[in-house]
Every structure is written in C-alpha cells, then in structure tokens.
Amino acid sequence: MSERKVALVTGATRGIGKEIALELAKNGFDIAVNYRGTQDENLKKEIESNNVRCEFVEADVSNFEQCENMIKEAIEKYGRIDVLVNNAGITKDGLIMRMKKEDFEAVIDVNLVGTFNVTRNVIPYMIKQKSGRIINVSSVVGVAGNAGQTNYSASKAGVIGFTKSLAKEVASRNILVNAIAPGFIDTDMTKVLSDTVKEGINAQIPLKRMGTPKEVAKVVKFLASEDSSYVTGQVINIDGGMVM
User: Fold this and answer.
1) Is pLDDT above 80 for 189?
2) Alpha helices in the chain (DSSP H)
3) What is the C-alpha to C-alpha distance for residues 110 and 126, in angstroms, rounded to an integer?
4) What integer pLDDT is reported at residue 192 of this predicted model?
5) Rg (CA), the chain
6) How do beta strands 175-182 and 235-238 pair?
7) pLDDT digits (tens, 9 = 90+) for 110-134
8) Which residues are catalytic?
9) Is 94 helix (H, G, I), strand (E, B) or coil?
10) How does the average pLDDT of the chain come out, rounded?
11) Which phi-psi region, left, alpha or beta, contains residue 128 (left: φ > 0; alpha: ψ -120 to 50)?
C-alpha cells in the first residue's frame, strides 16, 4: 500500500487535468493518471520529479467495465485511492437545430455518465477507508447555460446535481464531494479561438482575462487537502467573476 495519499485524475494527460495531476504531485500525492490511447512518458517523468509515484491507468470513462478494471488496477498498484478528480470531458458544440443525436449522447456519456462510472467504482473503497475526497469538474455553462452548448451544459449541470446528491449520501463516511465550475480557461480548447472572439470573451469577464489551468488546479488542491475538511456539496466557480 502506498505510504502517501493517492489521487486518481481522469483525462489527466493535457490541459486542466494535467495541471491538476502536477499540482497534487507537488503536494505529495502519488498519482494515477487516467488516459485513453497513448501514455505520455514526459508527463510521468514530470510527476515523478516531485519524488512521488506515477502510474498510468487506461479507460474510456464512458465504458463502465473499463472503469471497473481501471479502479481495480489502481488499487492493485497503490492499495488505496484517497482523492478522485473526475476531469475527463469532451465538447461537440452546435445549435440544437443542427445537433445530431449522437453528438448529444456522446457528450452526456463522457461528461456525466463517465463521472458516474468512475465514482461508482471508487466509492466502495472510500467507504471501506472511511475517508475520501471526490472533486468533479463541472463548468460555468452548467450553472448559467451557453448558446450552442445544450449537450455540454446539460452534462455539466448534471454533474452539479450528481455532486450535491452524492455529498449527502456519503458525508457520514467522511467522504467529501465537491464540484468546481471553471469559466474560460486558457487551454487547447480556447487556443483555437480567434483574437476577436477572445477579446469579446474577456470583455464579459470582470477580471478581463481568461484563467489558467494552474489557477484551477490550486482550487482542486485546496479541496483535496485537510484545509477543506468542512466543505462538501459545494460548487466553486473559477471564472474571474463571469457568473455571479
């Protein structure tokens, strides 16, 4: 069994997920990196440079059986999972008049059903440990909506309802469940936007800029730490004041 606490981060090979994995590693967590496709050996080295362990565990989060096997593999490698960060997510944007049924379902399957699939398989171990932290990555569009993102907004609003209900279910077992709702964050997803679009976005944000993955990761670090021992069932917006 790992002597350190162990964090499993889904979709952790790039963007916000990668930054969360690195931030938790810097704070002494052994890391299980969920991925699909190819492992990132550079990320493994970067995580391990903090004198912690890093193991890759593969699964498509929308597949329940793969999630079940992933959690078993992580437990075999570490003996425990103390923190779960449900970060894996996709977008398939479009106005509803043109949205294909399969594009709606794909986003729900990864973002919302995926959160259930991973959590459902982790919860029995956390209940046995009588401790745990689950941090679900929602979005400000799950709070306020966004034209052209009915699928994404629905999935992220679902994550918020899931978070609050689960928090009530498992609080007596010392398992804390919270969600974060990032706004516009400077990642690969937003890099493709034109300067004009970015200027328009920044104009809507009281802080007049996009956030960074590191700023998101710092809030996750707080929720994963003992500093948040009386915080559960909450949704923390990380959006520069865009949604108040």
Assistant:
1) no
2) 15-26, 41-48, 64-78, 101-108, 114-129, 140-144, 150-170, 188-191, 195-204, 213-224
3) 23
4) 83
5) 17
6) parallel
7) 999 999 999 999 999 999 999 999 9
8) 152
9) coil
10) 96
11) alpha
Helices (H) and strands (E) in the chain — how many of each? 10, 7
Backbone angles phi, psi at 177, to 5 degrees: -130, 120
- Those residues whose C-beta lies under 8 Å from the C-beta of residue 170, and which sit 6 or more positions away, are 123, 126, 127, 132, 177
3: helix, strand or coil: coil
- Residue reference for tokens 């963007």: 15
What tens digit of pLDDT does each residue of 224-234 get? 999 999 999 99
Among 182, 175, 181, 183, which residue's Cα sits nearest to residue 231? 175
Write the pLDDT tens digit of every residue in 52-102. Answer: 999 999 999 999 999 999 999 999 999 999 999 999 999 999 999 999 999
The tokens of 223 are what?
A: 């929720």
Q: Is 52 left (phi over 0), alpha (psi -120 to 50) or beta?
A: beta
Tokens 């096997």 map to which residue? 69
57 vs 233: CA distance, rounded Å: 28
- HEC readout, 62-92: CCHHHHHHHHHHHHHHHCCCCEEEECCCCCC
Residue 106 tokens read as 């794909």
In this prediction, residue 190 has a pLDDT band, given cuts at 50, 70 and 90, of confident
Alpha carbon separation from 183 to 5, 18, 173, 187, 244 (Å, rounded):
29, 17, 31, 11, 12
Is 236:219 a contact under the CB 8 Å cutoff?
yes
Beta carbons within 10 angstroms of residue 194's beta carbon: 8
- The amino acid at residue 178 is N
